[in-house]
Amino acid sequence: MKYSLVIVTFLILFNIQGFCQTVPDGQIKVYDSYQPKKGKSVGEKNKISINPLGVIIGDYPLYYERMFGTTFSIELGAGVTYQNYTRPITDLYGNANYSSLDVTRSYQLGSTYSVSSKIYLEDDCFEGSYLALCYRNRVYKDEVTAYQGGVLATPMKESQRLNSFTFNYGYVFHLGKGIMLDYYVGIGLRTVTSSEFTSTYNSSSSYPYTSTYTYSTENKKTTNPTGMMGLKIGYAF
To answer: Is the separation of the CB atoms in 42 and 125 below 8 Å?
Structure first.
Protein backbone atom coordinates (compact mmCIF):
# COMPACT_ATOMS: atom_id res chain seq x y z
CA MET A 1 0.00 0.00 0.00
CA LYS A 2 2.82 2.37 0.91
CA TYR A 3 4.63 1.64 -2.36
CA SER A 4 1.39 2.15 -4.38
CA LEU A 5 0.91 5.57 -2.80
CA VAL A 6 4.48 6.56 -3.70
CA ILE A 7 3.98 5.44 -7.32
CA VAL A 8 0.68 7.37 -7.71
CA THR A 9 2.26 10.51 -6.24
CA PHE A 10 5.22 10.19 -8.62
CA LEU A 11 2.93 9.84 -11.65
CA ILE A 12 0.92 12.93 -10.68
CA LEU A 13 4.10 15.00 -10.25
CA PHE A 14 5.44 13.69 -13.57
CA ASN A 15 2.27 14.74 -15.44
CA ILE A 16 2.33 18.20 -13.91
CA GLN A 17 5.99 18.50 -14.87
CA GLY A 18 5.06 17.62 -18.46
CA PHE A 19 2.40 20.34 -18.84
CA CYS A 20 3.73 23.15 -16.65
CA GLN A 21 6.95 25.08 -16.27
CA THR A 22 7.96 27.38 -13.43
CA VAL A 23 9.20 30.74 -14.75
CA PRO A 24 11.70 32.99 -12.88
CA ASP A 25 9.04 35.28 -11.39
CA GLY A 26 7.37 32.36 -9.66
CA GLN A 27 4.37 32.13 -12.00
CA ILE A 28 3.32 28.87 -13.59
CA LYS A 29 3.02 28.92 -17.38
CA VAL A 30 0.55 26.40 -18.78
CA TYR A 31 0.82 25.22 -22.38
CA ASP A 32 -2.39 24.48 -24.20
CA SER A 33 -2.56 23.20 -27.76
CA TYR A 34 -6.08 24.67 -28.28
CA GLN A 35 -6.12 28.20 -29.66
CA PRO A 36 -9.60 29.60 -30.48
CA LYS A 37 -10.14 31.54 -33.69
CA LYS A 38 -10.20 35.30 -33.44
CA GLY A 39 -13.39 35.48 -35.50
CA LYS A 40 -15.87 33.18 -37.19
CA SER A 41 -14.72 34.08 -40.71
CA VAL A 42 -10.98 33.43 -40.15
CA GLY A 43 -9.79 31.09 -42.89
CA GLU A 44 -12.54 32.03 -45.37
CA LYS A 45 -10.89 33.62 -48.42
CA ASN A 46 -13.73 33.87 -50.95
CA LYS A 47 -17.12 35.56 -50.86
CA ILE A 48 -19.97 35.92 -53.35
CA SER A 49 -22.79 38.39 -52.74
CA ILE A 50 -25.70 40.32 -54.23
CA ASN A 51 -27.25 43.71 -53.44
CA PRO A 52 -31.06 43.29 -53.16
CA LEU A 53 -31.51 47.08 -53.05
CA GLY A 54 -30.08 47.29 -56.58
CA VAL A 55 -33.52 46.51 -58.00
CA ILE A 56 -34.55 50.08 -57.10
CA ILE A 57 -32.08 51.57 -59.58
CA GLY A 58 -32.16 48.66 -62.03
CA ASP A 59 -28.63 47.46 -61.18
CA TYR A 60 -28.15 43.66 -61.02
CA PRO A 61 -24.50 42.63 -60.51
CA LEU A 62 -23.02 39.54 -58.88
CA TYR A 63 -20.03 40.29 -56.64
CA TYR A 64 -16.98 38.12 -55.99
CA GLU A 65 -14.50 39.10 -53.26
CA ARG A 66 -11.10 37.53 -52.65
CA MET A 67 -9.23 37.99 -49.37
CA PHE A 68 -5.43 38.36 -49.35
CA GLY A 69 -4.18 37.79 -45.82
CA THR A 70 -6.65 38.84 -43.11
CA THR A 71 -7.05 42.56 -43.83
CA PHE A 72 -6.91 43.25 -47.59
CA SER A 73 -9.31 42.13 -50.34
CA ILE A 74 -10.34 42.85 -53.92
CA GLU A 75 -14.00 42.73 -54.96
CA LEU A 76 -15.20 42.46 -58.57
CA GLY A 77 -18.79 42.90 -59.70
CA ALA A 78 -20.46 42.33 -63.09
CA GLY A 79 -24.02 42.07 -64.34
CA VAL A 80 -26.80 43.85 -66.22
CA THR A 81 -28.91 46.99 -65.83
CA TYR A 82 -32.57 47.56 -66.66
CA GLN A 83 -35.27 50.08 -65.73
CA ASN A 84 -34.30 52.60 -63.07
CA TYR A 85 -37.40 53.10 -60.88
CA THR A 86 -36.00 56.28 -59.31
CA ARG A 87 -36.05 58.11 -62.64
CA PRO A 88 -39.25 60.10 -61.95
CA ILE A 89 -37.55 61.47 -58.81
CA THR A 90 -33.97 61.91 -59.94
CA ASP A 91 -34.68 62.70 -63.62
CA LEU A 92 -32.10 60.12 -64.68
CA TYR A 93 -31.79 61.32 -68.25
CA GLY A 94 -32.33 65.01 -67.54
CA ASN A 95 -35.13 65.33 -70.10
CA ALA A 96 -38.05 63.38 -68.70
CA ASN A 97 -40.79 65.97 -69.29
CA TYR A 98 -42.73 64.81 -72.34
CA SER A 99 -46.12 66.03 -71.13
CA SER A 100 -46.94 67.69 -74.46
CA LEU A 101 -46.18 64.52 -76.42
CA ASP A 102 -47.55 61.03 -76.67
CA VAL A 103 -44.38 59.13 -75.85
CA THR A 104 -43.69 55.51 -74.90
CA ARG A 105 -40.42 54.09 -73.61
CA SER A 106 -39.21 50.50 -73.86
CA TYR A 107 -36.34 49.52 -71.59
CA GLN A 108 -33.42 47.41 -72.72
CA LEU A 109 -30.63 45.53 -71.00
CA GLY A 110 -27.46 47.45 -70.25
CA SER A 111 -24.26 46.50 -68.42
CA THR A 112 -22.70 47.11 -65.02
CA TYR A 113 -19.32 46.32 -63.47
CA SER A 114 -17.26 47.50 -60.52
CA VAL A 115 -13.86 47.09 -58.85
CA SER A 116 -13.24 47.72 -55.14
CA SER A 117 -10.17 47.42 -52.94
CA LYS A 118 -10.95 46.95 -49.24
CA ILE A 119 -9.05 47.10 -45.95
CA TYR A 120 -10.69 45.39 -42.96
CA LEU A 121 -9.84 47.33 -39.81
CA GLU A 122 -10.21 44.48 -37.31
CA ASP A 123 -7.72 42.04 -38.92
CA ASP A 124 -10.45 39.42 -38.97
CA CYS A 125 -11.03 38.51 -42.64
CA PHE A 126 -14.64 39.11 -43.75
CA GLU A 127 -15.85 40.64 -40.48
CA GLY A 128 -16.19 44.01 -38.83
CA SER A 129 -15.66 47.48 -40.29
CA TYR A 130 -13.75 48.22 -43.47
CA LEU A 131 -12.71 51.07 -45.79
CA ALA A 132 -12.97 50.75 -49.57
CA LEU A 133 -12.04 52.60 -52.74
CA CYS A 134 -14.61 51.75 -55.42
CA TYR A 135 -14.90 52.35 -59.18
CA ARG A 136 -18.29 51.59 -60.74
CA ASN A 137 -19.50 51.74 -64.35
CA ARG A 138 -23.17 51.43 -65.32
CA VAL A 139 -24.81 51.74 -68.75
CA TYR A 140 -28.58 52.17 -69.08
CA LYS A 141 -30.37 51.79 -72.42
CA ASP A 142 -33.90 52.35 -73.67
CA GLU A 143 -35.84 53.31 -76.78
CA VAL A 144 -38.33 56.19 -77.04
CA THR A 145 -41.19 56.24 -79.54
CA ALA A 146 -43.30 59.38 -80.08
CA TYR A 147 -46.77 59.63 -81.64
CA GLN A 148 -47.95 62.77 -83.37
CA GLY A 149 -51.52 62.99 -84.65
CA GLY A 150 -51.73 59.22 -84.56
CA VAL A 151 -48.58 58.90 -86.66
CA LEU A 152 -45.76 56.78 -85.28
CA ALA A 153 -42.36 58.51 -85.36
CA THR A 154 -39.06 56.73 -85.82
CA PRO A 155 -37.92 55.19 -82.49
CA MET A 156 -35.03 57.05 -80.86
CA LYS A 157 -32.43 55.28 -78.76
CA GLU A 158 -31.36 56.70 -75.38
CA SER A 159 -28.36 55.67 -73.32
CA GLN A 160 -26.56 56.80 -70.22
CA ARG A 161 -23.12 55.83 -68.89
CA LEU A 162 -22.33 56.52 -65.23
CA ASN A 163 -18.71 56.33 -64.07
CA SER A 164 -18.17 56.87 -60.35
CA PHE A 165 -15.27 56.81 -57.92
CA THR A 166 -16.27 56.64 -54.25
CA PHE A 167 -14.62 56.21 -50.86
CA ASN A 168 -16.79 53.87 -48.78
CA TYR A 169 -17.16 52.79 -45.18
CA GLY A 170 -18.85 49.47 -44.46
CA TYR A 171 -19.50 46.87 -41.79
CA VAL A 172 -19.90 43.11 -42.18
CA PHE A 173 -21.88 40.85 -39.83
CA HIS A 174 -21.24 37.10 -39.76
CA LEU A 175 -24.67 35.49 -39.40
CA GLY A 176 -23.38 31.92 -39.23
CA LYS A 177 -22.75 29.04 -41.68
CA GLY A 178 -20.90 31.39 -44.03
CA ILE A 179 -23.83 33.80 -44.44
CA MET A 180 -22.87 37.48 -44.15
CA LEU A 181 -24.64 40.83 -44.12
CA ASP A 182 -22.74 43.86 -45.42
CA TYR A 183 -23.96 47.45 -45.34
CA TYR A 184 -21.99 50.44 -46.62
CA VAL A 185 -22.13 54.15 -47.44
CA GLY A 186 -19.79 56.33 -49.46
CA ILE A 187 -19.11 59.67 -51.13
CA GLY A 188 -17.24 60.59 -54.32
CA LEU A 189 -17.56 61.89 -57.87
CA ARG A 190 -19.70 60.69 -60.77
CA THR A 191 -19.43 61.49 -64.48
CA VAL A 192 -22.60 61.04 -66.56
CA THR A 193 -22.36 60.72 -70.34
CA SER A 194 -25.78 60.49 -71.96
CA SER A 195 -27.59 60.48 -75.27
CA GLU A 196 -31.08 61.90 -74.61
CA PHE A 197 -34.30 62.11 -76.55
CA THR A 198 -35.30 65.70 -77.38
CA SER A 199 -38.14 67.29 -79.31
CA THR A 200 -38.40 70.65 -81.09
CA TYR A 201 -41.78 72.31 -81.64
CA ASN A 202 -42.31 73.84 -85.10
CA SER A 203 -45.31 76.01 -86.08
CA SER A 204 -46.20 78.10 -89.13
CA SER A 205 -47.03 81.79 -88.76
CA SER A 206 -49.28 81.95 -91.84
CA TYR A 207 -52.46 80.21 -92.92
CA PRO A 208 -52.97 77.31 -92.91
CA TYR A 209 -51.52 77.16 -89.42
CA THR A 210 -49.74 73.91 -88.75
CA SER A 211 -47.51 72.58 -85.99
CA THR A 212 -45.11 69.67 -85.90
CA TYR A 213 -42.40 68.20 -83.72
CA THR A 214 -38.89 67.34 -84.77
CA TYR A 215 -37.21 64.57 -82.79
CA SER A 216 -33.51 64.05 -82.22
CA THR A 217 -30.97 62.93 -79.63
CA GLU A 218 -28.70 65.25 -77.66
CA ASN A 219 -25.35 64.27 -76.15
CA LYS A 220 -24.44 65.55 -72.67
CA LYS A 221 -21.62 65.05 -70.18
CA THR A 222 -21.55 66.26 -66.58
CA THR A 223 -19.48 65.56 -63.45
CA ASN A 224 -20.95 66.03 -59.97
CA PRO A 225 -20.51 64.85 -56.37
CA THR A 226 -22.34 61.63 -55.63
CA GLY A 227 -23.21 59.35 -52.74
CA MET A 228 -23.45 55.59 -52.43
CA MET A 229 -25.24 53.22 -50.10
CA GLY A 230 -26.05 49.55 -50.26
CA LEU A 231 -26.82 46.32 -48.45
CA LYS A 232 -25.31 43.03 -49.58
CA ILE A 233 -26.10 39.47 -48.62
CA GLY A 234 -23.17 37.13 -49.16
CA TYR A 235 -21.72 33.68 -48.61
CA ALA A 236 -18.09 33.17 -47.61
CA PHE A 237 -16.12 29.98 -48.10
So the answer is: yes
Instruction: Convert the pLDDT of each residue in 164-188 to its tens digit.
Output: 999 999 999 999 899 999 999 999 9
Between 193 and 215, where is the model more confident? 193
Q: Which long-range contacts (CB under 8 A, 24 or more apart) does 14-23 make?
A: none
**pLDDT score at 209:** 63
How many Cβ atoms sit within 10 Å of the Cβ of residue 75?
21
Residue 126 belongs to some domain of the structure: yes
What are the backbone angles phi and psi of residue 25, rounded to the nearest 5°?
Answer: -85, 5
Does 1 reside within a domain?
no
Nearest to 232 by CA among 56, 80, 49: 49
Nearest Cα to Cα of residue 112 among 48, 44, 160, 53: 160
In whole angstroms, how large is the CA radius of gyration of the chain? 32
For residue 204, the model assigns a pLDDT of: 67
How many domains does the chain fold into?
A: 1
Give me the CATH number covering residue 222: 2.40.160
Residue at 31 is within a domain: no
**pLDDT by residue (tens digit) across 16-59?**
444 444 445 555 444 444 343 445 555 789 999 999 999 999 99
- What range defines the domain where residue 69 resides? 45-236
DSSP per-residue codes, 60-72:
EEEEEEEEETTTE
Task: Look at residue 66 and tell me if it is in a domain.
Answer: yes
Number of H helices and E strands in the chain, helices first, is: 2, 11
For residues 199 and 180, what is the distance between their CA atoms, to the nearest angstrom?
49
pLDDT for res 205: 67
